[in-house]
From TrEMBL:
InterPro entries assigned: CALM/Myosin/TropC-like, EF-hand-dom_pair, EF_hand_dom
Keyword Repeat annotated: yes
Gene Ontology cellular-component terms listed: myosin II complex
Keywords assigned: Repeat
Record-linked SUPFAM superfamilies: EF-hand (SSF47473)
Positions of the EF-hand domain: 71-106
Gene Ontology molecular function: calcium ion binding
Listed transmembrane segments: none
Protein name: Calmodulin
Coiled-coil segments: none
Stored Pfam families: EF-hand_7
Length: 160
């Protein structure tokens, strides 16, 4: 049997608590995001659509082995700077929230509030483009050290 990255297997096992070997597509999307894949919702739908429901582990491995060229920090910086009309390197949080909930692939207001709640905002209600790019492109924390805690949380939430 070939060796797979431990974090792929560990995250799969967290979601596959009944050890069925298959997961709903939505869970596969969560795992892939946790592993650093920054696909849009449309890209995830396109990737997952041809797969059986639920998705077997080997199909998940196949997805993860596909080349991934997600957005780079520079791509994100350029996109955000387009909205920095004054060239200050800062964006008003309210305007940024409006952009995220109304343009392109619209985000839910709750998701925007969660993201912007974690980004440092100055006294003028602005966030630095560089700080926002660093925040949005920061690597996802390794799942393995927190695996036991996540399993405890899932066990508490599981129906009796």
């Amino acid at each position: 049997m070939e060796s797979l990255p431990a974090d792929w297997v560990a995250l799969w096992d967290v979601f596959d608590e009944h050890r069925s070997g298959a997961l709903p597509q939505v869970d596969v999307g969560h795992i892939m995001r946790s592993l650093g894949r920054r696909h849009t919702e449309a890209e995830f739908r396109e990737l997952l659509q041809p797969l059986p429901q639920p998705v077997p582990f080997d199909a998940f491995v196949g997805l993860m082995r596909q080349p991934y060229n997600g957005p780079t920090e520079e791509d994100l910086r350029i996109a955000l700077q387009a909205f920095d009309v004054g060239g200050t390197g800062r964006l008003k949080v309210g305007e940024l929230a409006t952009l995220l909930t109304t343009l392109g692939e619209k985000m839910a207001e709750t998701d925007v509030r969660q993201i912007l709640g974690d980004v440092p905002v100055d006294a003028h209600g602005c966030v630095g483009v560089s700080e926002l790019v660093r925040f949005l492109t920061a690597p996802v924390a390794a799942a393995t050290p927190e695996m036991a805690e996540l399993q405890r949380q899932l066990a508490r939430e599981a129906p009796a």
